[in-house]
Each structure stands twice: as structure tokens, then as C-alpha cells.
Amino acid sequence: MQAFIALFLVSHRMAVLAPADIVILALYFGLVVFIGFYAKGKANTSEDFFLAGREMTAWIAGLSFVSANLGSLELMGWAGASYQYGILAAHWYWIGAIPAMLFLGIVMMPFYYISKTHSVPGYLQLRFGEGARGLAAISFGVMTILMSGVNMYAMAVVMQTILGWNITFSIWVGAATVALYVMLGGLRSAIINEVLQFVLIWAGAAMVPILGLVEAGGWTKLKAQIAVNMGSGDYMHMWKTLGHFKDNPMGVHWTGIVFGLGFVISFGYWTTDFLVVQRVLSANNLRAAKMAPIIGSIFKMAVPLIVIVPGLLALAVLKNPDGTLMHLVPADIAKVTGQHSYDDVLPLMLIRYCGPGLLGLGITALVAGFMSGMAGNVSAFSTVWTYDIYGAFINKKASDKHYVAMGRWSTVIGMLVSIGTAYLVMNAASIMDYVQALFSFFVAPLFGTVILGMLWKRATHWGGFLGLLAGTMASVGMFLWVHTNAHALRYIAMSADAQPMAENLYRALWSWLICVGVTVVVSYMTKPVPIEQLGGLVYGATPIPDDGAKTLWQKPIFWAIVVIVVFFVLNLIFW
Amino acid sequence: MEHHEHKADPTEISIWFFCGILVLAYGLVLLVTGLAEFHTPPPNEVLLPWLQPLHPTLWWGLLMTVLGGIYTVRFRPRRS
């Protein structure tokens, strides 16, 4: 009993691994490295290395697509957000993902797939020329490496917090393992491991909501308990409290959720972020490429069960050793007071319900999530570096073998730079927030450029390039404005009651509008691209090929409709 | 454009086999741990007495063993 109480009192180590936990963790590391060596024999050409030979079925591409996004930063961050903001956090999994994933599958995938591009910057080159490609490739390359480093550091901190592991040990073991399997087997190895990691994340995390709901006495009693503990019923409504910024714990408005998150951020991330799109490009035919995001969306819709529900359960059941309700606090306060931070919700709940063996499985799931985040970033970086920077601007006429070698080297070098980023973040933790904000600068305007490129024949090269540049600069400008003058938020979010979360939503919306506006104006002022150069790239200039579906069950559009109906029903249930 | 399909090498090991073998191995570890804990519950189950009769490690281990076993057998590598 004393040992267990100590788990909660000793802030620098929450748990100690039992032999069964260590066996589970060791089996995982052994298998992922084996997969790297196994996939090496099948990564001989650039198509094999960077696009897994385009041999993946819809299920595998779909699971990998959703798994690449399901890193542990995501798992732990949104579990913490659901503790902080209630069920509103589920918007980032439903309206913030599902419509965009379906749009990618049904509308955009045919263009990515039939243009035979190897990357999203590659599509921009075909549609808008080298300027837009260079801008997108360099910004994406820098951001993926930084994000990989942030992931690495976050994993090391979690391992230190939960198990007391040395930060340097965690960084180097995690980085070396990921670098080894991605360098050896390329995207095929990353995809096999991502599917494995997806299964593992569910196996390791599912016990928390199951046992938590048993403890809480079911969903209805959970809602009632949270209302008692928090003194408000606002934590359990997804839409009811979004009529005004001050009516909900997040300080947002429904327009920000629908247009900022549901349209711009979500469509920007899921349809133009090459980290996820690369997984779908590995599909073995057009129908599989269309079905992969739809299959991914079904699993994405279920993720709140293992991410949002644990945060909500913590509001109801998490207690201090003396029986009083435990209050989690923001990370900066936690450092001073020694309390647990919001991000500790998932580990705390794992320790609460999982004894030896199950705890090891849960910890392995977190490690798997971090590694899938790192592998996703580094494999996407190596592709964009090799095709869109090195192959496009430095060495245009090398052999295929040379590009595969470059892919392997760039994986290792990318990982070493990421390790440098991890140490940089370690010495100045606030950089972590800035790096994550940086990533958001490019996503919203890039979506404006890609969507106009695909749907509007009149968009010109200069329009695309200047629109992307203007949107990105506007996003950076708004970020700096709010961070040097907090009152600026009222202008960006159009309300004095807006909270920081609203900034991300409205900044994305404005930067997208600016990108689209500049692209349209500049396009009308510049010479149109001849229609014959737009074949395979733009709606109206491209015959959409038959995807081979014969029956209703094989048609991607049928499954997209099923998913969107379920999506609406879920939103109504949790209204 | 014609409908174009890339075929995977039929001799390669299925991704589902890798998933099956890992889930099976984990299931067996949990099953053994769950059996060992049947009469000597771990500290968290002592602290939360309602957890003890549920034996989550044992049942989760059994479920993973069965599912992992099915996937391992169904997708085991075969010589063509």
C-alpha cells in the first residue's frame, strides 16, 4: 500500500517496471528492429524506399495514415486537453478530422494519385512551378525535423516522469531505433511499424476507458459526477455551449470550430500535410488510395474513446492518497508546485488501473506512439529532401540508386539534427510551444494554394506562389502580434472574451482567406496556364479515371456517406 | 488512364502476421502474469478493491492470446 501511495507522491518517478513490463517493452523493440532488417531487402528502388513500392492495400494505407498522426504528443496532449476543457476536445477528432479525411479520399486523392507525384511539394511543382515547390519543400523539411526533435524530447520527459529514466538515454535509444528501421526499410518499414503501433496503442490504452467507466458506474453517472466535481455541466456538451466565447471552458465560438478548425486547419492538415498524404500515396491502386482515408476516418472517429474519455474520467475519479479530489494544473505551475500537470492524465490513469504487465503494455503504447510520430516525420523529411530539394535544386540527374542512398543518408542526418533540436528544446522548453506553432503557419495557406490549384483552372504560377507566401507571412505576423500584445487576440478572434485556443482557429482562417485572396487577385493579373498543361492536375481539365469499383460495397463514395452519417449522429448524441 | 494495380510479392510476410505474433506474445505474458496475480493482487488492485474480482490482466491477456493466435495462424508465412 505504501509503495503504491509513493507512486503518486514521488513526482520524478510515478512507477517502477516489473519483469513482465520489461519483457513487453523488450519484445516491442526487438520486433521493430527486425521489421527494419526484413524490409531492407524490399527497398531497392526509389519507389520502394519512398513509396513502399505503391503496394499497400487500402486497410494498411488507411491504418498507417491515421497512425502517423496518432503520436504520443497527440495522445497525452489531448487527454490533458479533455481534462482541461471537457468533451470539447473531441472536436479535434471529429469535425477537426472526419470531413477532411473524406474530402481527401473522394475529391483530392485522384489528383495526387494520377499525377504520379511522389510528394505534396511535387504536386505544387507540377501545378505552380518550382517557386511554390521550393517554398513548400523547405518549410516542410525544416518543420518535420523540428517536430521530430520535439517528439523525441517529449518522449524523454515522459519516460523520466513515469519511470525515472535518464533523458539522454531515452533520446538516443528512441532516435537510434527509429533511424535504424526507417533507414533500412524506408516507408515500407515505417508503415509496417505504424500499423503495429496502432494495434499496440489500442491494446495498451483501451483498459483505461473500460475500467474507468466501470469505476464511474457508466456514462450517465460519469456526467453527473463531473457536474458535481466541477460545479458545471458545461464539460460534457460539444455544441450547446459554443454560442458565446465565455459560455464554455475553452473560450471559443462555434464559428471558430466550424470554419477555423473544421474547414481550414483540418482540411489543411489532412489533405496537404505530406506526413499523412505520403501513407495514402503508397496504396496499390486508385480505389485503395480513395478508400484508405475513409477507412482511416472510421478509426479516427473511435480514438476519443482512448484519448478523450480518460481525461473526462480523471475529472470524476482521480483522487489524492488522502481521498480528496486531485487537481491537475498547467505545466508551468506544476513545475513550481510539484503537482501533476494536465499532460500527466493518461499516465496517471494507466497507473491507476493497470498492474504489472498491463502497465508495461500501456507504457509500450506510449513509446510506440512517440516512435510512430518520429518515424512519420523523418520518413516524410527524407522523401521531400531527396525529391523536392536535393533532386530538384542540387543534383537533378543522379541515378535511382543514388537517390535511394540519399534517402538513407538523409534519414540518419535528419535524425541527428532532430536530436540536436531535442537538446535545444531541453535547454529552453518554451521553444517546444513555438515549434508546434510554427508548424501551423504553413498548413492553412498551403491548403488554400493546393485546393485552388486542384479546383480552379485560372490559378497561375505567380498566383499560387505569392498566395502561399502572403498567407504564410500573414500567419507568422498574427502570431507575433498576439505574442507581443495579448490584446491583439480580440481583433483576430473578433471578441474580447476569446481565450488563447481561439487564436489558433481564427489565425488559420484569416491566413487561408489571405492566401486565397492573393492567389485569386494575382492570377487574374497574370497570364493563364495553357489548358493542355493542366491535364491530370485540375478538375475540369482532367477526365477522372474509373477506380474499378463494381458493386455498391466497393464504392468509396458509399462508405464516405456511411461515415458522414455516423459523424452527424455522434455530434447529435453528444450535442 | 487505365486502372493500374501494383501487386505485392506473394512470398512476403504479411503485416497482419507481425501484428498477430506480437499480440500473441503479449497475450501470453499477460496471461501468465494474470494467473500469478490471481491470489496475490498487485498494489493498485489492493488500493482499488473493486478491481480485484475483475482480474483485468488475466482477461485482457486471454483476449489478446486468442486474437493474436488467430491472426498468427491465419496470416502465417507460406511457401507458394
Architecture overview:
The complex is a heterodimer of chains A (575) and B (80). Chain A is mainly alpha-helical. Chain A has helices spanning 2-9, 19-40, 46-51, 58-67, 72-85, 98-114, 120-128, 130-163, 167-205, 207-216, 219-230, 254-272, 274-281, 286-302, 304-317, 331-337, 345-353, 358-394, 400-427, 430-455, 461-484, 489-492, 500-525, 556-573. In chain A, α2 crosses α9 and α21 (461-484) runs antiparallel to α23. The radius of gyration of chain A is 23 Å and the shape is globular. The two termini of chain A are 42 Å apart. The model of chain A is unreliable at 1-11 (pLDDT under 50). The model of chain B has no long low-confidence stretch (mean pLDDT 84). Classes of the chains: A mainly alpha (575), B mainly alpha (80). Chains A and B meet through α1, α2, α9, α10 and α17 of A and α1, α2 and α3 of B. Chain A: Pfam families: SSF.
Would you spell out the secondary-structure blueprint of this structure?
The complex is a heterodimer of chains A (575) and B (80).
Chain A: H1 2-9, H2 19-40, H3 46-51, H4 58-67, H5 72-85, H6 98-114, H7 120-128, H8 130-163, H9 167-205, H10 207-216, H11 219-230, H12 254-272, H13 274-281, H14 286-302, H15 304-317, H16 331-337, H17 345-353, H18 358-394, H19 400-427, H20 430-455, H21 461-484, H22 489-492, H23 500-525, H24 556-573
Helix pairs in contact in A: 2-9, 2-18, 4-9, 4-13, 4-14, 5-15, 6-12, 6-14, 6-24, 7-8, 7-20, 8-9, 8-18, 8-19, 8-20, 9-18, 9-19, 10-15, 10-17, 11-15, 12-20, 12-23, 13-18, 14-24, 17-18, 18-19, 20-21, 20-23, 21-23
Chain B: H1 15-36, H2 43-47, H3 56-74
Helix pairs in contact in B: 1-3
